[in-house]
Protein 1
Amino acid sequence: MSIEIYVVAHKSYRMPANDGIYIPVQVGFNDTISGFKRDDTGENIHDKNGSYCELTAQYWAWKNRTADVKGLVHYRRLFVSRQAHGRFNYDQVLGASEIETLLTKYDVIVPKKRNYYIETLANHYKHSHLDIGLTTLDDIIKADFSTYWPAYKHHLQEKKGHMFNMLIAKGPVFDDYSKWLFEVLGKVEAKIDISHFSKSEQRIYGYLSELLLDVWLETNHLTYVEVPVAFVEGENLFKKGLVMIKRKLVGFSEEKRS
């Protein structure tokens, strides 16, 4: 089967060579990077990259690519083989044969769940971002996607979730998820004026989308397998933990604006 894993990047960076299945996709408004596909070709939402983040590449892949298997990863965050051990190297990146084997047993390949330990996913979002994004998403799911409401309500009270906007699935599954995801986010976008948000908070739809994959998987009774994710440049978990505790204790520092 044909496999394309789209590696989202905004700058030139080393890409996995595994089996030729990794397709670098340039997002943002920088000069063209040689050898990269661009998210401003074909049907696209390239101009929304500032608020949709890596999802502009997902939209592009949904609308313009026809591979049997599609996936979305990041230039600094990659799926690695479940047999990988020790310090990361590019030889450990998940390859075609393992992907094919996993997708004969499961519908979707996802990252291992991230555990926030001291707070629910809803509270973590509220302690990290402006409230209006989550409250608007609540209203949209409840009113316009009511079949998803039970799973959504349950998931937001959990402390673990499949984050990072990373997945690999057979093409129709990837496309079905994308169709639903962008319909949901489009309705949220129509309700919120983000023009006065900080540059970081304008990334709202990239943040919100991390809460939705599990809701879609559960509601549609899809099976998944968790695969390790390597942070190519490392990850300071201690620093992240301190930031999370600080936000929980003192709240989100940016003025709460609607």
Protein 2
Amino acid sequence: MSIDTAFILAAGKGTRMAPLTDIVPKPLVKLNGRALLDYVFDHLKDAGVTKAVVNSHHHAGVLRKYLAGVQGIEIMETHELVLLETGGGLQNAASYLGDEPFFMINGDAFWTDGPSGCALKRLEDFFDDERMDILLLLIPVERMILTEGVGDYDLLPDGQIRRNKAKAGTHMFTGIRIVHPRILSGMEEGIYSFLKQMDAAEQAGRLYGLVHDGEWHHISTPDDLKRVGNACRDA
């Protein structure tokens, strides 16, 4: 399987990143002189992705201008007059995503590949559409040093994962995942979190995780941005 499409979440307000997000959407906040989205698009191109659907809301005009300058990948924007959150945003973009599995990535995700190479290709190689509806890229909480780690999930021996509602799990979700489009048929219009679909996949035994062997940082605040920038100048 070769995944050629991605859905990028770029509509949120990024309130914890204020005042930087007073003038730009969070994915366009700069880390070492480059927008966070620049790094995301670099990874997508390295993985062979040729089309990206990007949702917009907060400072949509600024995002639209940025997207017009992206080279080497076809871009489609789905604008949200009302912020639909992650689930509603995906449902709103569903008609543009095709009939094959796609990457779904938070627009503010920042990561570097590890010894095993391209993290997106690793996800792609691990994904089994007969067993999985959703595959999450995870990072051990114990490796979260520069930024705050939250124990979203526990990883089971067979690769399935269980959400730890107390946030005391062993692994944190990176905001990087593969989604099979069969789940889209059951999604409703409205404002809601994609967590609803992840929980449903978990209940069906079709939610899996893969551990990232590179670096990933949870960039939520200007202080996070500064720490990560200082530590990752060569990224």
Protein 3
Amino acid sequence: MYPAHVSDETSVVPTRLLREHPMLPVVVLCFGGLTASLTQTLLIPIQTELPQLLHTSGANAAWVITITLLAGGVAMPTAGRLADLYGKQRVIAASTVLLLVASVICALSGSLAPMLVGRAMQGLAMGFIPVGISLMREITPPHLTGTAIAAMSATLGVGGAIGLPLSAFVAQSWSWHALFWVSAALAGAVLAATWFLVPHVQDAAPGRFDVGGAIGLAIGLVTFLVGVTKASTWGWTDARTLGAMAVGLVVLLVWGLYQVRTTEPLVDLRTTARLPVLMTNVAAIAIGFGMMAQAIVGPQLLQIPQVTGYGLGQSILEAGLWMAPSGLMMLLFAPVSARLMQRLGAKRTLMIGATVLGGGYLVGFFLMSAPWQVMLACIVASAGVGIGYAAMPTLILDAVPVNEAASAVGVNALMRSVGTTLAAAVMATVLTTSTTTVGGFPFPSENAFEWCFALGAAAAFLGVAIAAFVPGRSADALTPEAAPLAAASVPGPARR
């Protein structure tokens, strides 16, 4: 049976198909989330070759990676608000079209400018994920909703992990342009599946899109994150770093004042300030930091030459294959997280996830002398990510009005993105500050990797402490605002 508010008149999905295969739309949306998120790591295996491939400097080539992260951060809350106003399925389809066009632009690019345009558009397509998460409760029967949200949430990490070995294999087997042709083909498949297999839900709400708020958020967020991402290159105390971060924070402060005073804001900060939402979003920064740290540290440790005495000497493809199980682990733990939320509630599940994540970093701190040990540490950490990432949107959705669900989940995804961006900057600083020279080439020292594992553990356990301040609730309790959403998910005959 499918939710009552999914109407045959607005959906091209056969009613019988939904009744017999209620998880089919979930599989489609998860596949779309994987496709969108793998673009974040698509070019990492060939990052050192980008200056030569794009006929530009190393500093300029670095923007090919950075601009996708920046655009993704802006897209998540913006796409969420658009979904609340115009319908989630429409925004999901638009995000997929954006990813398809962006991938073709990148595939045809041979210089920096068009590549930056395409990569920025790929980042904007990341809005697919938070909107997909918020749609899950509207298209799934209640007994499948927890698992569906958990699986969709995990795609943020799974796609990035799978992207490493996939892109390494494609780049080594064919031209680097093939990376983007593969991305375009996947986006095309997602677009068709989304249109024909995901129900068209009548969930648009009257309102006005806050253009000024979107512009203000983009300026403030991008300026601040530019300072963060460039800190390892410019230096954390450099005037450019401090200036960019300060200007970004000031713009965001002004933006916040504007959001509070406008009648239809991009982000309802009063809702965001509710303790369950606020503390979940703060915890998201810490857990996002912990998630990205292992994605950065693991591959580097695996690829450092064995002559250093601690490096593991793996090729790019081998390193990606050692890291791949960690990504799959996030997906495998999605149903585990759903069961934990049913029995213990989302708050305790979030705390358990962050604890397991920290435990993974402790494993890495003490065991990093063989590839299988690094894989084990990343698997444990990723299991924690899978559990924690699933709990966060559930906490958010249970605490916000239905007509703000997508926007609120988008803000939570943004907070995770801020955490991952901070992790990338901090890990890069640690790994480049403490080095050892072998054969005339500098490599991160063994002590630097130990520090990275320790910082990842500290961030995860900080997430546990922050999550403890989320107001407690039973596993089945719902706020008054969330109650209509649950009622709408009761299976029954379609309304006509």
